[in-house]
Design goal:
- The complex is a heterotrimer of chains A (767), B (162) and C (292).
- With 767 residues, chain A is α+β, with helices and mostly antiparallel strands.
- Chain A contains 20 helices and 30 strands.
- A 7-stranded mixed beta sheet of chain A has the order 3-5-1-12-9-10-11, with helices on both faces. A 5-stranded mixed beta sheet of chain A has the order 7-15-14-13-8.
- The relative contact order of chain A is 0.13.
- Chain B is an alpha+beta fold.
- Chain B folds into 2 domains: 4-80, Beta-grasp domain (Ubiquitin-like (UB roll), Roll), CATH 3.10.20; 89-157, [2Fe-2S]-binding domain (DNA polymerase, domain 1, Orthogonal Bundle).
- Chain C starts with a strand and ends with a helix.
- Helices cover 33% and strands 23% of the residues of chain C.
- In chain C, helix 9 (241-254) runs antiparallel to helix 10 (265-291).
- In chain C, the strands form 3 sheets. Chain C has a 5-stranded antiparallel beta sheet. In chain C, strands 9-10-11-12 form a 4-stranded antiparallel beta sheet, sandwiched between helices.
- The chains are: A alpha+beta (767), B alpha+beta (162), C alpha+beta (292).
- The interface between A and B is large, with 54 and 54 residues.
Amino acid sequence: MRQLAEFAEADKFFVVGKRTERLDSLAKVLGKAKYAADDIPENALHLKVLRSRVPHAIVVGVQAPRPRRAVKAFITAKDIPGINVSSCIIQDRPLMAQDRVRSVADIIGVAAAEDSDAATDFLKSVQVRYGRLPVLESPFESLRDGSVKIHESGNIARHLQLRKGDVQRGFEQADAILSETYSTQFQDAAPIEPEAGYAVPGPKGSVTVVGSMQNPFYVRGSVARILGVPEGKVRVIQATTGGAFGAKSDEVAMDIAALTALTALKTRRPAALVYSREESMILHSKRHPFTIKHKTGATNEGKLTAAEIELVADTGAYASNGPLVVVRALFHATGPYVIPNVKSDAYCVYTNNTIAGSFRGFGSPQAHFAAECQMDALAQKLDLDPMEFRLKNILRPGSQTATGQVLDSSVGLEECIMKVRAASEWDRKKSAWREKTGRKRRGIGVALVYHGNSIGPEGIDRSSASLSIDEKGRVTLRIGLTEYGTGARSGLAQIASEVIGVPLSQMVSAPADTRTSPDSGGTFASRTVVMGGNAVRKAATALRKRLDEVAAQVLRCDAGLIEIREGIARRRDDPTRKITFRDLVKSCLRRKVSLSETVDFTATGVAFDEKTSQGIPYLQYTFGAIVAEVEVDTSLGTVTPLKFTTAYDVGRAINPLSIEGQIEGGAAQALGYALMEELAHKGGAVVNPSLTDYYLPTSLDVPEVESFLVECPGVLGPYGAKSMGEPPIDSPAPALVNAIAHAVDVRINSLPATPEKILLALEGARP
Amino acid sequence: MMSRHLVVLNVNGKRRRLRVESHERLLDVLRNRLGLMSVKEGCGTGDCGACVVILNGRIVNSCLMLAVQARNTKIQTLEGLGNEKKLHPLQKAFIRHSAAQCGYCTPAMILTAKILLEKNQKTSREQIRNTISGSLCRCTGYVKIVDAIQEAAAEMRGETVG
Amino acid sequence: MKFDVFLPDSLSDLLRFIDRRREEVSLIAGGTDLLPRLMRGQSRPKLVVDLSNLSELDFMRKENGIYRIGALTRISELADSRLFQDTCEAIREVCQQLASPPIRNLATVGGNITGPGSFRDVLSVLICLGAKAVLKSRRRKRVLPIENLLPKEGKIGMGLGEILTEVHLQAPPRNSWSSFSKVGRRQGFAIPLVSSAMFLELELPSRRVKELRLWFNHLRDSIPEKAEQTAAAVGGELLSESVVTKASGMLSAELRPSSDFKASSEYRRRVAVRLFKDQLAHCAEMIVRRSR
């Protein structure tokens, strides 16, 4: 009922729900925002990393000349005072290789010099002797009997299973059964800013690290362990970060911080490390390639009866966030449908490729690619319209998911479908474009999405925030959650502004700094507005209560009659009785009323069975529907995307402008994933670590995007808000592939759906 | 004779005399000598366009030029456009449309649009997309960048906006 | 990666300087070739010579029925030039689509022709149009078919001390048309998977092919190749559907594309044939249209 009451008051919001400007835009359009590489101290040493030259080997020996002249240090694993580990979930990855290398991204050492040319030249003289080991290039090689073990524990980093009902019986009840295999590729996050960071040594073994990153507290913990010092000795500050998408959530940010900190402490000079694009693409974590087998059963009327799914992920040489990526993939593998009998297994497998880890979507894009292509293929087999088939099976309020979770009222999926169906003119185009004459053929395709919010089953979900008001009436937000283009931090400021009653221009968002910001957990899983927002709202509410009480004293009324809006506190019963916010603050200070508040917020209620994955993995879900329109040139196989029409159930839009930005950006990344991006590995080596032949969508590749925001407030987020960082990247890819299938009757089951794959499939040829 | 050169150039309206090393790129000199950090390096191979600056009235990739090649030229970076008190229409529009997300491609996008709008304020969305196609954005999907440029064009045409 | 740079003030200054040098000297004009190669460690010059100031090599004009294009003409200038409109359309087409807008403002014609890492699409068009290259050294001047500048075993047929100063192009005959076309992995700028340059001259009103020149690029590296047999077979024939079909078959057999991670040889082959058919139809139509 809380949701309904708030929803009814939507038009009473002054800041929340508005298309307000971001707090960081001014600095960015003036060119004043300082990214890590912009701020490197004058006398800093420049680091260069020595990577392994082979993908799998025993390191027999490392011989380096003594550093001299411009080269001040060459640091290897031997120089690590603490624990040589820089990894995410499983402690399987050293910061620097000791006796073994498992990928070409393994770091053997780092040279520090007066300039990076000198460091690069020095590395050329370092001799490494390798005892080569067999190279495993795919999970299927890794899973074969007798394959070399990449890690002591074996080549399966994690196996999960989901069991619901009885799939055997479910398939018996089906009139049609479809088995297909889908596969996806390594996708590179490719933020336009490559990773960078620097460290400055302090007194008594302390160090300050500044860098391009998502999680300053994880970085601090990692650096402290590597240095063998208490966390209090390490201060980590996030610089303005030029895009992240997950890559800067994982090892690279921790590595750069640790390598520069080690160097700074050893040489007593600041030390900086800036990755080139090539280094960035080799070293940072990528999206996991998945091979997904679907076997789905449905009745002739179009009711799904059973699904058997196997997901195999290539996590590369080290697990990184792979063990959690497969969790999310497993939980979303069916797509947003009611299926009474489900049997799925997910495997996270080691290979000697470079690492796969966090990347926006986190297993969900892969799962949805397979699920949504499968739904379309099954619709075709049953001779049903893809939208109609989906409508017969979608999750609705009160539905039970594949994990047996009964959903509450906050399921806006059907409304999303209706919106895009109408706005895209689905029915008309579906039949009109069927005419299929001419060289260029148009197609329209749909895909749905559901995305469990925040970390759900991945750990304890806790967030902290701190608000403090100064004597000028400025409200400073301190929080460990970071901004890197999402606009989420500005969203938090909007919430505080709304609750306290100050204009947004009075809000200050302090840099994420482990010394002054409360630890709010990681900035991933699209949890900033949902979890951080709750903490901010709680802190703001506590402050507001105290402000109201003082205002009531000053204006001589009941605290319940106080309204604060746009920086003025008034009596509701007599608005002429008022006091400016600044004066109110002065009154508070005189009365020694605290104008600072730090709170925690913990999400509770996640619980599920380890063996069957039945239970409640996520407290709320974002839903969405995407329609893609394309034109395919049947002569060349090239695809021109024409338009995306999208609708998402966002719970409550804190800032529609920001949400649109996420929808449009997510659609572009998904388009790249669908049609052109592929980080190729061969023999463990990265073939195209360069933007010359790793194709990101340009402004000529991405079409216009129409977005509808549906609001079905959820139980978890502030004002019912739902996550919108990741969901927008989950399903535009299958929508495109389904549109291509509609255009030219060709189903591409492996990404990217390149012109070549399309042309050769059209012409029935083998490459 | 040849490892260092004295280069005279005009940057953001100021005449500068710099001693540059032969191998330094224009990008390096703008950032490290002149402190113009708005000029970004994203790839070093001309593929991302984050390093774009205006040189003699045209956009160029500053990572593809040696600093000495910029002698006697007129260069503009984002630092030379507008200020907090008086923003250029493009800067205002980028703020209003939240067209700067992570902000890393923003300097290149604004400078590129500036040249376009100086020549043609009646530009279509397609023309805008063509013009900015040499700079990559990974955050926005380009939609709000195009929206912002169209709005700035309207303002420069004398239409009221906002 | 440190090196010295020499800044000649004039062409004669440049020629005198490189004449003295027996070792290879790296040239830089637009920088769009050399700088990425430096970045990737593919080039380690000791000395670089900057041509960008030689304004005497930056020109485009038509004199006595001959187009003269200076080697330092920027690709964007060539793209915007009215000089080639309706006569050498392939030049405008290749230049308008080359790389990206800021790269076009830097890249030069000379760089596209002689740069070691060049992708050579402009060269491909110029060869197809029968252009000639003017090479100058301190002591002499040579004029040769621009085809002779194609790399052979990694080397271009220019002597030490020689510079490409300009390109000459005869104004094409009346009933002719040229075209450039390419296919990439995305709509935005990319090294093409295949590109095709065509020159067609027809006899009217018969539509008999007087001459067909056909050059493909990126089939194997970025070294343009002539589809000699196909062009010869079509020469003298009446442009009919059956002739086009037969030519397509010949072309498919004649081409020897390679496979890489970007595209297979089969895809390149099929696309090359499609481009050929499209361009042939297009050029023929433009010739007929203009004759009216």
